[in-house]
Specification:
The chain has one domain. It is mainly beta. The chain contains two helices and ten strands. The protein has a four-stranded antiparallel beta sheet with strand order 4-1-7-8, with helices on one face. Strands 5-6-10-9 form a four-stranded antiparallel beta sheet, covered by helices on one side.
Length: about 180
C-alpha cells in the first residue's frame, strides 16, 4: 500500500488574509437524514468537479456584517478522528424574515459554500450537514453594542473542507432567489 503522506508542503510568498466574502446555503438534508446533494468527483481524494442539487432545492445567499464570518476545519481527536466543519456569522438588525431564516438554520441540517476573501471556495457540511451549535440574538445596552444574531453552525464530516471550483459556485449563485 502506497503512503498518502508523499508530498511536501512548500512555503509560498503571498499574503494570507482571512475572512469570508459571501456564503451560499441550502437545505439538502431530509428529515430522515438522507442527503439530496450529490458531490461530483471521481473519488474521495479527487477534486470536486460539480455539485448536483434537487431542482426544487432553494439556494440562499447569506450576507453578514463585514469581517464577522469565519469557518474552521478542525480535526477532532478522541476515541475516533474526524474533521469538524464550523461556520460562524453575525447578522445585524432583527426582523421577522431574519428570525425565520435563523430558526430554519437552528432546526435543520444545511450545506454551505463559503467564498473566502482570497477567492478560494470551500464546501462545508457537504455529507452530514451543519447544525446549530450557537444561536444568540439580542440588542446591547449601548448604541455601539451589537444588535442582531450571532450564529455558529457545526458538524462532523468525512474530509477536510473540499475546494469548490468557481464555475460550480457561479452556477449555484445563479439559483439564488431575489
Amino acid at each position: 500500500m502506497a503512503s498518502k503522506l508523499n508530498k511536501s508542503i512548500r512555503k509560498t510568498q503571498q499574503y494570507a488574509i482571512g475572512g469570508i466574502a459571501v456564503v451560499l446555503g441550502f437545505d439538502t438534508h431530509l428529515p430522515n437524514g438522507l442527503n439530496t446533494l450529490e458531490i461530483v468527483r471521481t473519488s474521495i481524494d479527487a477534486p470536486i468537479t460539480g455539485l448536483t442539487l434537487d431542482p426544487d432545492t432553494e439556494v440562499i445567499r447569506l450576507e453578514f456584517e463585514e469581517n464577522e464570518a469565519l469557518f474552521s476545519d478542525n480535526t477532532v481527536i478522541g476515541a475516533n478522528r474526524f474533521p469538524k466543519h464550523q461556520l460562524g456569522m453575525k447578522f445585524s438588525g432583527r426582523d421577522d424574515e431574519k428570525n425565520a431564516i435563523i430558526k430554519a438554520m437552528d432546526l435543520n441540517r444545511g450545506t454551505y459554500i463559503a467564498k473566502l476573501t482570497t477567492g478560494q471556495i470551500v464546501l462545508l457540511g457537504g455529507v452530514n450537514g451543519l447544525t446549530s451549535e450557537k444561536s444568540d440574538s439580542g440588542a446591547g445596552a449601548k448604541n455601539e453594542d451589537f444588535n442582531g444574531y450571532d450564529v455558529l453552525l457545526g458538524g462532523a464530516e468525512l474530509e477536510k473542507a473540499p475546494i469548490v471550483p468557481a464555475a460550480v459556485f457561479a452556477t449555484l449563485a445563479a439559483r439564488v432567489a431575489a
